[in-house]
Amino acid sequence: AQSVTQPDIHITVSEGASLELRCNYSYGATPYLFWYVQSPGQGLQLLLKYFSGDTLVQGIKGFEAEFKRSQSSFNLRKPSVHWSDAAEYFCAVGASSGGYNKLIFGAGTRLAVHP
Amino acid sequence: NAGVTQTPKFRVLKTGQSMTLLCAQDMNHEYMYWYRQDPGMGLRLIHYSVGEGTTAKGEVPDGYNVSRLKKQNFLLGLESAAPSQTSVYFCASNERGGQPQHFGDGTRLSIL
Question: Is the CB of A103 less than 8 angstroms away from the CB of B56?
Fold first, then answer.
């Protein structure tokens, strides 16, 4: 069955430090992969997506993610975190089911940023 | 540029009451979705629609009904609310399956 695992429920980093959020997926075919960010009281905003091609994808707000097929991973990175990056981050995989593509979400990683 | 708009934003219901959540999108998207978000569980798909007049069940459809009478609107109904339906509900849309989904800001629903 398709699934997405985000091993870290909470992460705390200092402002200016680097960040890596982990995501592992289980899917038989080549997946579509997404990272979304959710600020408190808001909906989900797309950070970046991977469909095919270059395995290192750039997104908004200085984020990037790398698709590693051998590890079934799609980890999100940022070289220098800003206080405004404090939010919840969701990894999702697009999976085919019954003729349409659905999103399967991980449980999320809540990021806190210390000044 | 409104995108996906959900109404209401907050609602408190008593057990057994009914209500309808409205989702409206102005991007002419074919596909629309209703999710619920619960702590530690990410988002789970309730129902979805692949076009006007169509609906289908998602992962957790029990206790909910939906309708898509107009392309831009997707309604989620609770016929007899239960405390287990206390959650944050998100609507999303996209042009077609596989494309990124655009999300509304959510409806916080509490059932007492």
Answer: no
